[in-house]
Amino acid sequence: MSEHSGASPSSTLRTPEALIKHGLAEPETLSGLQALAEQFSIAIPPAFAALLKPRSPENSDSACNADPIGLQVLPDARELVTAPHERADPIGDDALSPVPGVVHRYEDRALLKPLLVCPLYCRFCFRREHVGPDGGLLDEAALERAFTWFETHPKVTEVILTGGDPLMLSPRRLKRIIRRLSGIPHIQTLRLHSRVPLAMPERLTEELLDALETEKAFWLVIHANHASELTPEVRQALRRVQARAIPVLSQSVLLKGVNDTVESLESLLRALVQARVKPYYLHHLDAAPGTAHFHVPVEQGRSLLRQLRGRVTGLAWPTYVLDIPGGAGKVPIGPDYLLAEEQTPQPPSGTCKATDGEQFRKRRVQATDGQEHSFT
Ligand SMILES: *Cc1c(COP(=O)(O)O)cnc(C)c1O
C-alpha cells in the first residue's frame, strides 16, 4: 500500500500534484497528467475520494482499471487518444441552441444550462470539452435572454436544468432561477439533473433545498454508475430531498469496467430502488473524444438487460437509450421480447413455473437475435 493511501482528502482534488500527493497517481506520470489536465478538468470531491481503492504495488499500473470509482474520475492517458468515430459534439447539441444556455430538441421540453461547473469531472462525459471550474456561468443578461426564450415558446412545458451541475449554484442564484421559471404560466414541470447528491451530499443543506421550492412539478434526476456511490451519507441526503415531495430518478451510463457485468448492474439498480430512486435511463456511451476505453458494444448492453429482465424487480428496469449522433435524439435500444415472425412474446429469466409450483431460475430463452442465452 502506498504511504499516502490512508489519508482521505478534506477538499476536492483538482490537480495532478494533488493526486500524486494523495497517492492516486505515480510521480513519474506528472508531466503526462499536466498535459491532460490542460484539456480536461479534474475534480474529485472528498465523498468520491473516500471510495477510491488504495493503490498497491501489485496493481500500481492498473490500479484505476480495477476500481469502478477510480475509472470514472481519475485522469487517464488514454483520454488523449481520439478514435476516428468520436466527435466533440457527439449528440449534436450545439446546432440546437437558440440562445446561449438553452438547447431545444423536442417540442415540449428544453434544456437550460446555467453553468458548466461540476462537483466532479467524469472522464467519459460527452460535454467534457466544455465543462470546467471556470466555465459557462450565464450572467444576468444571458439568463434573462434564456427566460425570455422560454416565455415566448408556449409549447415548451418542461425546463430541464442541467449543465454543468445546477446544484453547484449558490442557493440564492438557484432560487432566483427556479422562481423565475415557475412564474411562466405554460411551464408545468421543472427537472434538474445533478451529480451533487452523490458527489457532495453535504451540499444538500436545508438552504439549498429551500431554493428548490416551487408550486410546479419538480423532479430530480441523479447520475449514479456504481452501487458503492450510494453511501449512507448519500442516502440520507436523498431522504432530505424526498422529504420535500421531490421524486428522484436516476440515469447511468453503461461503462466498461464500471457497470458492464450483470452483477454490477444488478447491484447498482437494486441500490437505487432501495434508496427510493427509480432508474430512468441507462445510456449507451456517447462518442466524445478520448472515451473509447469506456465503450461497451450495444449487443452487450442488450444482453445485460435481457439477463436482468425478470431477475430484478420491474421497478429497477431502466430504458436503455442511445443518443443518435448528429442531433436526432434519444432512442430506446433495449432487448426485444417479441419475435417479429411469430409475434410471440418471449419469457424473461427469473420466472417461476406455475403448474407444479416448482421454482426454476435457469432457463433458455431464444432471443430475437437468434442467439440462445442461458440464465442462472
Ligand atoms: C436528453 C434530452 C432531453 C430530455 O429527454 P427525456 O427523454 O425527456 O429525458 C431534452 N432535451 C435534450 C436536448 C436532451 O438531450
From TrEMBL:
Segments for region (Disordered): 342-376
Domain (Radical SAM core): residue spans on this chain: 104-319
Domain of life: Bacteria
Residue list for modification N6-(pyridoxal phosphate)lysine: K330
Listed InterPro entries: Aldolase_TIM, LAM_C_dom, Lys_aminomutase-rel, Lys_aminomutase/Glu_NH3_mut, rSAM, rSAM_sf
Key words of the record: 4Fe-4S, Iron, Iron-sulfur, Isomerase, Metal-binding, Pyridoxal phosphate, S-adenosyl-L-methionine
Cofactor(s) recorded in Swiss-Prot or TrEMBL: [4Fe-4S] cluster; pyridoxal 5'-phosphate
Residues annotated as binding [4Fe-4S] cluster: C118, C122, C125
A GO molecular-function descriptor: 4 iron, 4 sulfur cluster binding
Family: Belongs to the radical SAM superfamily. KamA family.
NCBIfam families recorded: AblA_like_2 (TIGR03822), KamA family radical SAM protein (TIGR00238)
Protein name, as recorded: Lysine-2,3-aminomutase-like protein
Organism: Oecophyllibacter saccharovorans
Taxonomic lineage of the native organism: Bacteria, Pseudomonadati, Pseudomonadota, Alphaproteobacteria, Acetobacterales
